[in-house]
Amino acid sequence: MLIAQLTDIHYGVSKKKQRDLGETRRLIACVDHINTFDEKIDLVVVSGDLAEDGWVEEYQALREILDRLKSPYVVIPGNHDRRQNLLAVFDDHDYLPARGENHVLFSIDHYPVRVIGLDTSLFGEPYGRLCEHRLAWLDKTLQEDTAKPTMIFMHHPPVRIGIDWVDSIGLYGSVEFADLLRKYSNIEAVCCGHVHRMVVSNISNIPVVCAPSIHCSISLSLSKNNSYSILYSDEPLSLFFHYIPSDGNLVSHLSLVNVNVIDLIGDSGELSERFKGEYRKLYPSGADR
Ligand SMILES: [Fe+2]
Ligand SMILES: [Fe+2]
């Protein structure tokens, strides 16, 4: 089974933010990359922060692009999403709960690997939470099949990353989550977003992988009290392909999307001009490729 993971699209439609950072072209490039991969992708998982502000218009606009995927895809919310707006726009996705439900929790069982979507978001808050209700649902769902290989997709990682400000918007309930996972031996990985960097860790001896954001990367600083810094241009666009052969263990491949990032940044907006300038300073010969 082959699963592509896209995360942290942060699709925005707000003109006043002037964030013409090429979200549309970034997303199209990723969709094309998945569609033209040399092996059939069974499923695409979009692991949260689909929208920047959670407006219906944002979901409608990004859905137009996601619908170009040749493979089926599923979505889970992140802290930038508004569940009810997301559920309204994707209301024909039959694995999703009905509008009005408090949490987006699902288990897709008809593939060789069971795919669980676990909603960690908490409305209005940047950090995440696994409350008793969600943990109880997960426990009950895992009990239904304790043999089938299972992957859990969730937005907030259940581990500390070591980047202070990211950890300050981390996940509450991760200790209870770790205790719960210890009861099961069929969980291949916990796959997350939110960090805007590729990160590998583990929880209860289960791999945790965070996919890079297709919107932007954050700078890496492991010093205490580090501050917020975003890199729009000097890390390549990339996504994960999770490959689970029928006779082997999960292997997660980082796959670079072969586009020139400068081409993805729009022509208008003050910020775009600044990013272009920064990019040209960093890569003077590459800027005009
Ligand atoms: Fe994000
Ligand atoms: Fe996030």
Topology of helices and strands:
Blueprint lengths: L1 E5 L16 H13 L7 E5 L8 H11 L6 E4 L6 H7 L15 E4 L5 E5 L9 E2 L2 H12 L6 E5 L9 H4 L3 E2 L1 H8 L5 E6 L6 E5 L2 E5 L6 E2 L11 E2 L6 E6 L7 E6 L4 H4 L5 H13 L7
Helix pairs in contact: 2-3
This protein binds fe (ii) ion (2 copies).
Strand fraction: 15-25%
Structural class: alpha/beta
Please mark out the parts with pLDDT under 50 across 5 or more consecutive residues, or reply none.
Answer: 267-272, 282-289
Beta-strand segment tally: 15
Major β-sheet strand ordering: 4-5-7-9-11-10
Average pLDDT, all residues: 87
- What is the CA-atom radius of gyration, in angstroms? 18 Å
What does this structure look like?
The protein is 25% helix and 22% strand. It is built from eight helices and 15 strands. Helix 2 crosses helix 3 (83-89). The chain has a single domain, classed as Purple Acid Phosphatase, chain A, domain 2 (4-Layer Sandwich). It is an alpha/beta fold. It is globular, with a radius of gyration of 18 Å. The N and C termini lie far apart (37 Å). It has a six-stranded mixed sheet with strand order 4-5-7-9-11-10, with helices on one face. It has a five-stranded mixed sheet with strand order 3-2-1-14-15, with no helix packed on it. The protein has a two-stranded parallel sheet with strand order 6-8. It has helices spanning 23-35, 56-66, 83-89, 132-143, 164-167, 174-181, 261-264, 270-282, and strands at residues 2-6, 43-47, 73-76, 105-108, 114-118, 128-129, 150-154, 171-172, 187-192, 199-203, 206-210, 217-218, 230-231, 238-243, 251-256. One fe (ii) ion (FE2) binds at residues 8, 10, 49, 78, 194, 196, 213.
